[in-house]
Amino acid sequence: MVEIYKESLCTQKILARWYEAHKEQNFGAFVTFTGIVRDENSIDGLSFDIYEPLLDSWFKNWRQKASNKGALLLMAHSRGNVYVHESSFICAVLSPKRRVALEMIDEFVEDFKAKAPIWKYDIINGEKVYAKDRSTPLPHSGLLT
Predict the structure, then answer these.
(1) The 3-state secondary structure of 110-143, one letter per residue
(2) Structural element, H or E, at residue 102
(3) Contact 7/82 with Cβ under 8 angstroms?
């Protein structure tokens, strides 16, 4: 369901593939979001761990929400190291009308940041450091230390 890639995403290829696969399905809007690692706090990049069974379940619920509105939701994310100015996350909403796609992409990205089971670490001098100050606990879970 969710496309998982080792390290950074080749956003141009993924988005072009998604567009080609769905351009003749009569969607009037193809709205995308691309997450790019920022150069801040002296990091070299970010590293990501993913719990795929929970991510697939979370994403399946979102795909159903999109389907209920006549839309299609697509997502790709990185596992492992992604360096500054590279992409770790892209998603797209395709819908017959732009308003549905624009509203859904905003809701999806906000929920992704709060609830997707993806753990982020800073890469500093080649070492992974858990980014606790920028992380949100998953609902009904605790943090293992």
Answers:
(1) HHHHHHCCEEEEEEECCEEEECHHHCCCCCCCCC
(2) helix 98-115
(3) yes
**DSSP sequence for 21-67:** HHTTS--SEEEEEEEE----TT-SEEEEEE-HHHHHHHHHHHHHHHH
Superfamily (CATH) of domain 3-133 = Molybdopterin biosynthesis MoaE subunit (3.90.1170.40)
Query: What predicted TM-score, i.e. pTM, was given to this entire model?
Result: 0.89
pLDDT tens string 61-101:
999 999 999 999 999 999 999 999 999 999 999 999 999 99
Q: Which amino acid is at 64?
A: Q
Domain regions of the chain by residue span: 3-133
Q: How many CB atoms lie within 10 A of CB 132?
A: 10
Q: Mean pLDDT over residues 18-38, rounded?
A: 97
Does 145 have pLDDT greater than 50? no
Residue 109 confidence class, pLDDT cut points 50, 70, 90:
very high
